């Protein structure tokens, strides 16, 4: 398979670009922020995503989805990133769908119709500390009756306070730091003992800290096998990491486009600043980093879709490289805009804030480089 | 099974049977690579065997037409061959400026007689080529070159000097830019081929900081070049030159692909050792290596994408400049890390253990990567203007 989008993927990209650009441009995010919107996303827009067929990209055709893959999900996520659109797409249409694809038929029948219709939002309750480290999962799930009782706290759960479905990584055996002994659960909204406290982040998105105070779930809430949740969790993480990489590419590309546009229009010292070689070289370097990151992301998406054994490492490379390149894009964006780039009125700073959140989400460049080094045996 | 899958299976089987084990090791020094030519030196019988077997199938140039010694493979088949060679760790059977640079230019601009004469010999590694581009006063400003070719009726008389001519002292023929009209800078250049054994050609190696002399000064004193050796139209050589430079940049960008994923950590582990948890016992170096490997893996994907886009005619014409820039900067970073990982072992210049100072000499050699074939700054100028469409001053 050649490493560029095929004709159908290009068509999907064009329609996603037009749709997201028109219905949810940066001004949409700004108005939600200014209104201190308590949801963190616009439910009406989420319904439109469903009508476009986006929410079912990873759901197979037998369940009414389109049965596509990480490449296509990434095409939509890139446009979400380019427009800084607040959306439950990554956690719901990618993370939760991947979890449910690893779960039971009953779980799929319970959730897929609502996700396809844009009626349900899901959240991923994985992290428990300021730095992503899923093997350190400590939240306990103790057997109780024919089910489990969950106790502990999750952090950095985007949409956690409004989610209908929480995908929760819990420890049923072993000790924090071990991959064995983790179990994945599907927990429904409104369960007794569940308390979500949303905090607004630097990019104006909302992420919740969620307390589990002996939350009771039935045995059928288990996704996959008891104590063997690392496999479905890996599937979820591969999906959302490569998805976050695509969204990062969109953030970086959006920032780069704004910046290059500004270089062509802003005049100083009697000429367009884009004619200055110092700025041309920085812009060309940025372009190179973004292109390399884009190739790494597409490679990871294609390997994931092909079920290739090398996919997991490629996803780590993609997340790390997209984080590095987009961080550069937003930094250069603010710098090259000069003083105006520091104002709230201008949007380039929004890209910087969103880029930081996404770079941290599901493991930053350092985390993934470290994981790759361990796998390589050093 | 699809045709491509059949091709993959057969190619894998053929490589496994025909690629000698010694040719499945990375090339570790300049002497270890095969360059072919009239006076070819093979470092081992396996090296010659590997070249002969690959050339017989046209696989030294898999995507050239069969009639010119190529393999006649489609882009998809050529990609499979590259992939299968990489999987087995097969060396490229032949290093060749003829393959990387002149061949593509001849395929596009050469006449039938020139293709028939030169391409099969390039494919079989019989003639080693060098490139006569740079001049003492025309480096990055290549088009200001002065070496002249005077029209003498049935031939040109070439006079002047080239510099940085890679392996001119070992080459059999040269492809050379000459001035045929002084009244126009870009439209007064022609592209000619001639035998380095012609009377009036002399070369003088230039000793570099690595202690090697891969480059030469090359002098032309009334060299007679037959008109049949003019490629493309008279005074239109700049078009050929630009086309060829794109291929040169593509070739040099490949340097970013050096395979260090094992070599670099192993070198560091040997000099530094492991901590109690089995990790490289120098956390900052470990982190630097790991982040470098992220970039190297990402660039490998970029190289694959670039080749795919090139073969499909989708690549931006200025993209080779980006590849050249990124690949060479990455290669320099790689060798800085190899030096850091090797510690004082990597400083030895002549010892047997250091293979004659292979590490520091290779490190020093890479410093030219961002100068030769157009400096990094020239590449960034091209990207800024031709891809990002930024204005000229």
From TrEMBL, chain A:
Residues 136-199 form the Acyl-CoA oxidase/dehydrogenase middle domain. InterPro entries: Acyl-CoA_Oxase/DH_mid-dom, Acyl-CoA_Oxase/DH_mid-dom_sf, AcylCo_DH-like_C, AcylCo_DH/oxidase_C, AcylCoA_DH/ox_N, AcylCoA_DH/ox_N_sf, AcylCoA_DH/oxidase_NM_dom_sf. This is Acyl-CoA dehydrogenase. GO terms for molecular function: acyl-CoA dehydrogenase activity; flavin adenine dinucleotide binding. The lineage of its organism: Bacteria, Pseudomonadati, Pseudomonadota, Alphaproteobacteria, Acetobacterales. It comes from Oleomonas cavernae. Keywords: FAD, Flavoprotein, Oxidoreductase. Pfam families: Acyl-CoA_dh_1 (PF00441), Acyl-CoA_dh_M (PF02770), Acyl-CoA_dh_N (PF02771). Transmembrane segments: none annotated. Residues 7-119 form the Acyl-CoA dehydrogenase/oxidase N-terminal domain. Residues 228-376 form the Acyl-CoA dehydrogenase/oxidase C-terminal domain. Belongs to the acyl-CoA dehydrogenase family. The keyword tRNA processing does not apply. It comes from the Bacteria. The keyword Nucleus does not apply. Its cofactor is FAD.
Automatic annotation (TrEMBL), chain B:
It holds the Pfam family Acyl-CoA_dh_M. One of its GO terms (cellular component) is plasma membrane. Keywords: FAD, Flavoprotein, Oxidoreductase. The keyword Cell inner membrane does not apply. Residues 130-223 form the Acyl-CoA oxidase/dehydrogenase middle domain. Residues 5-126 form the Acyl-CoA dehydrogenase/oxidase N-terminal domain. GO terms for molecular function: flavin adenine dinucleotide binding; oxidoreductase activity, acting on the CH-CH group of donors. InterPro entries: Acyl-CoA_Oxase/DH_mid-dom (IPR006091), Acyl-CoA_Oxase/DH_mid-dom_sf (IPR046373), AcylCo_DH-like_C (IPR036250), AcylCo_DH/oxidase_C (IPR009075), AcylCoA_DH/ox_N (IPR013786), AcylCoA_DH/ox_N_sf (IPR037069), AcylCoA_DH/oxidase_NM_dom_sf (IPR009100), Mycobact_Acyl-CoA_DH (IPR052161). Gene3D superfamilies: Acyl-CoA dehydrogenase/oxidase, N-terminal domain, Butyryl-CoA Dehydrogenase, subunit A, domain 2, Butyryl-CoA Dehydrogenase, subunit A, domain 3. Its cofactor is FAD. Residues 235-388 form the Acyl-CoA dehydrogenase/oxidase C-terminal domain. Belongs to the acyl-CoA dehydrogenase family. This is Acyl-CoA dehydrogenase. It comes from Oleomonas cavernae. The lineage of its organism: Bacteria, Pseudomonadati, Pseudomonadota, Alphaproteobacteria, Acetobacterales.
